[in-house]
Amino acid sequence: MWLGFIVFNRRTSHFFHFMASAGCRSHRGGRMAAWMLYRCVFGPHLQRIHRSPEQPRPEGRFARRPWNYQPRSLEKHTDSILGWASAIWSISYYSSPLLLCYLYRKGYICSSKLVPVSQYLGTVLVCLLGVACIRGWGRWRNTDYVHFISVLEETKKNHTPENKKKLRCFDFDFSHWPADFSWTEVSSPKHPKGGVSLLKPEPRLRGTADSFLHSVRTLPCHVIGFLIAHSFGRRMLYPGSVGLLQKAMRPMLQGGLAKLIEEYDGERNKLVACDGNEIDTMFVDRRKDGGPNGRTLVICCEGNAGFYEVGCMNTPLEGGYSVLGWNHPGFAGSTGVPFPQNEANAMDVVVQFAVHKLGFQLSDIVIYAWSIGGFTASWAVMSYPEIQSVVLDASFDDLLPLALKVMPESWRPLVQHTVRQYMNLNNAEQLVKYQGPVLLVRRTRDEIITTTHADDIMSNRGNNLLLRLLQFRYPKIMTDEGVRVVRQWLAASSPIEEASVYSGYEVDDDWCLSVLKSYQTDRDVSFPWSVGEDMTLEGRRQLALFLARKYMRNFESTHCTPLPAAEFHSPWRL
């Protein structure tokens, strides 16, 4: 009897242990399912699934077909509803000042009217929350989305290279992308959290009383300038930061991103700058290819409506270089607004990332900039003088003359104050502080950085950038006569005219090169040089034209034509 009782107890204990284990597993599985459903409701919008680098490239007519993410009908329709709600909210936000004025004049801003409106808005929000939950249910039933969420959560927990490789196969809202590098990771940061240092315009010297009266008198100008800079001024200067333009370009940007990842095995990274802005970057590593240019990293700085997905990255890529592209603050996946301080902060963390994370030396880095990207490029070489060289394509010396061109003449004092205070893109002032090799590319039919019209090549502000650089580096050569002959060469709008001016002064390239090398060998000093001090007028003319042709190349095109890889050259150096 006792033996039977013992056997019975053992069996029942095993039974209860089995039931408890099953209950725990069931409870744990339920919690995991609930957590996954929650992540599907509040997770990012998945836009595309890229071909994994390990998978073979499909052949034939399917070779360029994208691996698009296919949302199910439930997710697709709810996404559409939430998209329209987001668009209506954006329109309401930007038109809120006018809307509030209208409601105030109609007498709707009072307690009796606001209560029904708040109830209506609350009902709409509850309905939208329900739509978001239904979308989450649709995502939860999609195996592709569930797999994506699993990869994203695992990468956030363990940011290993293997997990990151899996994550880069998905194109989704970049705000959910885990940070790959922060400026705080640098052992000895060069700047405080407020931001990197910028060159400031020199203040005018005034007495104490005069300075106070001047501040009071110019207060309205300060207020208006601030409002202009933070409203339409910034959007005019950087139209790529306008959300409407980004939405219109979204298919093009997605296609460009897919090409960089699938064809060039590009690596997308999120960098956190010292001001807290998140910078969207793309890195293509060519060091393992064994090419002559793969060991050199080209950091690309885009124009005011340029994105690395479809911008100037393609030029050095076709040349076989390792390339690092990044988007301005407020462009595509990058956060913030593109004011000069934020731009410099972003450029700083990009350079730090290239050195400390990607393993490049500053002497292996070339900065390549197009148009307004010349500001961050010139800041980078000014702040990091060890950088190998800089190439500025279709860039300018200073923003102010270009801003005065598009604004009414009566606004001149206001424009001058606004630009100098909030948008001081002083490229030439920064560039002259760099001692390394420089190449300027001038577009002969540039319609953007000319102060008159595209056919007037002498109004191209790239001319002023060249003259400013040469006058700083070679002041004894670039006297009035030197400036005159360089301007004559700059006025040539075709290669035949250039050659005619060059041969007209009988420039002897070998003699000019020997003079400069002899001076460098004897003195080995930094710029400015005193070469040409005891030289004849004819010798200074020859040297001026020789240097102008070495520092600038002409490209016969308009402003927005992509620069061919054949036109991307390393800057001249002695």
From TrEMBL:
Listed InterPro entries: AB_hydrolase_1, AB_hydrolase_fold, ABHD16_N
GO terms for biological process, alphabetical: monoacylglycerol catabolic process; phosphatidylserine catabolic process
Record flagged with keyword Cell membrane: no
Pfam family, one: ABHD16_N
Listed GO CC annotations: endomembrane system
GO MF entries: monoacylglycerol lipase activity; phospholipase activity
Family as reported in the entry's similarity comment: Belongs to the AB hydrolase superfamily. ABHD16 family.
Protein name according to UniProt: Abhydrolase domain containing 16A, phospholipase
Source lineage: Eukaryota, Metazoa, Chordata, Craniata, Vertebrata
